[in-house]
Write a structure and sequence with these properties.
This protein has 646 residues and is an alpha+beta fold. 45% of the residues lie in helices and 20% in strands. Strands 3-2-1-4-7 form a five-stranded mixed beta sheet, sandwiched between helices. A hairpin with a 5-residue loop joins strand 9 and strand 10. Helix 1 packs parallel to helix 4, helix 6 runs antiparallel to helix 7 and helix 12 packs across helix 14. The N terminus is likely disordered. Keywords: Membrane, Transmembrane, Transmembrane helix. This is DUF4012 domain-containing protein. It comes from Oceanitalea stevensii.
Length: 646
């Protein structure tokens, strides 16, 4: 029976010895025929092994070739991206500087590099490699970053460059009393689309987890994320500008605004006592000064122009809603704008479309753009202004404007109503010089940008869709505990309680010291606030309107309400004064932010430091940002870095 099993059931190589005779089937058959079949089968097996070896060799050669291709293409992608990355920041700087020709050339060069990098990592072999364990995340990251930057270089950035060519600083300068709004309207769709593209690209980059990548690649992608974030800041600003400037300057209908001038010599949270109010009318790009009033001329509202919350009363007092000069005691400028709008409507009449705020430091910086401005001698004479207030030359300059408006007016003019009137005249004169086209465009824009960064230029719109665009920007002046991009915001504000202009001599120094990062994103920081009095000798001889009359504090002394706000979701765990155990701090929660206040008294030459230990809410990955009351110009801010990455 066993002789009848076919030989192909033997294992590879057979079981018979070389001398074994093949079995003979029933019915006869030659042993020679069986031997021939066996040799044929062995020959076929040898041929199959040869083919298999050749296939394996071909596969190995193919893998080697593929690895070579990966290496060459990967090196090309890395080289091109390294060349492209600095160009992103360079393009941003050129666009900000209005260097449109240079920006166009940089954009072209950037496209060449990003296109080459994207082509280098394109193809099915890269798509397959992106799905492999370990190496796949790195390959996918490279493909994503090259695609994002190439899309931006090909689509968004050319529109941005074109926009900067159309909307350059010169177009923001009034010509014959008006700003041409047509270019802004024309370029708006392209700028908005460019910003949308940059935001989409930034979000795609943010989806790449650099912690999963090899060290060098992760570092490079983090650097690229930072550059695209900066670019997104530029495009967001440009997008808001082209959407806000035409309607707010009356492209469709006439607009009216209150311009408040804050007096930093008597500090309030967002700057100072609002001593002058200018009503502006904007129509088709032309802005005219309609009227100007002092705080007293706006009115006094004994019952309160608006209803205040219990927290607002506890922190700022009922004067916040009663007296126009105190509306900026709250660090939430949109609230200040709502209150003064209600006061204006009740005390003067008419609804306004928005509220703007500047201070004398910002107005003085605008004189860098206009050059010195002469004041009318007859008008100065009527106000009793002596020539020595200007050093003999009745001109406002970039060097003297802030000092004269914040200090000189109280040293040299006795009558308080004349002081108010001079303050109004000086502010109106500078504003008019800018609006009539006397200012250098680039210098004007630079001054306004600096003023916005320092919190000296703030804007609120009564139109909801416009206010939504302003929200979250440095122009909004809103109370907030984070930037919306991973950075906690610490607020340090001062409200003067001296009933004088003596705080012109107050200096504030703030140090934010990063202490620790926690696994959940909480950050521990210590905020040290030092208030110093630089009142000169002979305070008793200073005018009462400057140094006080001694009824609130001793003449020449200062009394301030210092307010420190914790970031979103944070808390203030300790408040201390290195020189005393009696800190006298009082806590509150304002707009869902923890705030601690402390009353600080200073005699001439005194210095008081208060330290606040703060733990932020969770989820912050960037260093703390400080927002503080802008003073007369002597304030300082020091920060230590402790960026938390999770």
């Amino acid at each position: 029976m066993t002789d009848n099993f076919p030989s192909w059931l033997d294992d590879d190589g057979g079981s018979a010895t070389p001398d074994a005779r093949p079995p003979t089937r029933a019915g006869g058959g030659s042993g020679d025929d069986g031997g021939t079949t066996s040799r044929r089968r062995r020959k076929k097996k040898r041929r199959n092994r040869t083919v298999l070896a050749l296939v394996i060799l071909a596969v190995l050669l193919g893998l080697v070739a593929l690895l070579v291709i990966f290496a060459l293409q990967g090196r090309t992608a890395v080289t091109e991206m390294r060349a492209a990355m600095p160009l992103v920041s360079e393009l941003r700087q050129e666009a900000l500087g209005g260097e449109t020709d240079a920006a166009g050339a940089t954009a072209d060069e950037l496209r060449e590099h990003t296109s080459a990098a994207r082509d280098a990592v394109d193809g099915p072999h890269w798509a397959v490699a992106a799905k492999l364990p370990w190496i796949g995340a790195n390959v996918a990251a490279v493909r994503t970053t090259t695609a994002v930057v190439d899309d931006l270089a090909a689509d968004a950035l050319p529109d941005l460059v074109a926009a900067t060519d159309i909307v350059d600083p010169a177009r923001l300068a009034p010509q014959d009393g008006r700003i041409d709004l047509a270019p802004f309207t024309e370029v708006a769709p392209r700028v908005v689309a460019a910003n949308d593209a940059v935001v989409a690209g930034r979000d795609r980059l943010d989806s790449v987890d650099s912690d999963e990548l090899v060290g060098l690649l992760g570092d490079q992608i983090d650097k690229l994320k930072g550059q695209v974030d900066e670019l997104a800041g530029l495009t967001a600003t440009a997008s808001r500008a082209v959407q806000l400037i035409p309607p707010m300057l009356g492209a469709e209908e006439s607009r009216e605004y209150i311009l408040m001038v804050q007096n930093n010599a008597e500090p309030r949270a967002t700057g100072g006592l609002t001593g002058a109010f200018l009503l502006l009318r904007a129509e088709d790009g032309a802005v005219e000064l309609v009227e100007q009033r002092s705080a007293g001329e706006v009115g006094y509202f004994g019952d309160g122009a608006v209803e205040l919350t219990d927290t607002e009363i506890a922190l700022f007092g009922t004067q916040l809603a009663r007296y126009p000069g105190n509306v900026t005691a709250t660090p939430d400028f949109p609230r200040s704008a709502e209150i003064i709008s209600a006061m204006w409507s009740e005390g003067v009449g008419g609804e306004v479309d928005g509220v703007l705020s500047l201070d004398p430091v910002a107005l003085g910086s605008l004189l860098e753009a206009t050059g010195p401005i002469g004041l009318d001698d007859g008008e100065l004479g009527a106000l009793g202004v002596p020539s020595e207030m200007f050093g003999g030359d009745a001109r406002l300059t970039a060097d003297n404007a802030a000092d004269i408006m914040l200090n000189g007016v109280y040293r040299y003019i006795d009558d308080t109503s004349a002081q108010d009137e001079f303050f109004e005249v000086a502010a109106a004169t500078i504003f008019s010089a800018v609006m009539t086209g006397e200012a250098a465009p680039a210098a004007t824009v630079a001054s306004l940008v600096q003023a916005a960064d320092e919190g000296r230029l703030i804007v609120w719109s009564a139109h909801e869709e416009e206010q939504d665009l302003l929200a979250g920007t440095v122009l909004s002046g809103e109370l907030r505990g984070d930037t919306g991009h991973g950075a906690p915001v610490v607020g340090v504000y001062v409200n003067d309680l001296s009933a004088a202009k003596i705080a012109f001599y107050q200096r504030m120094e703030v140090e934010v010291e990063a202490k620790q990062c926690h696994a959940n994103g909480n950050q521990d920081v210590t905020v040290s606030v030092t208030l110093t009095s630089d009142v000169p000798d002979g305070a008793a001889e200073l005018p009462n309107s400057l140094a006080g009359n001694g009824s609130v504090v001793d003449k020449g002394d200062m009394r301030s309400n210092l307010l420190v706000y914790a970031p979103t979701g944070g808390r203030i765990t300790d408040v201390r004064d290195p020189d005393t155990d009696d800190v006298g701090a009082f806590p509150q929660v304002h707009n869902q932010q923890v705030v601690v206040g402390r009353r600080v008294n200073l005699s001439p030459g005194d210095s008081v430091t208060t330290q606040f230990d703060i733990t932020t809410g969770p989820g912050f990955t960037s260093d703390a940002v400080l927002r503080m009351t802008p003073g007369p110009g002597g304030e300082r801010y020091i920060s230590s870095a402790l960026t938390c990455r999770h």
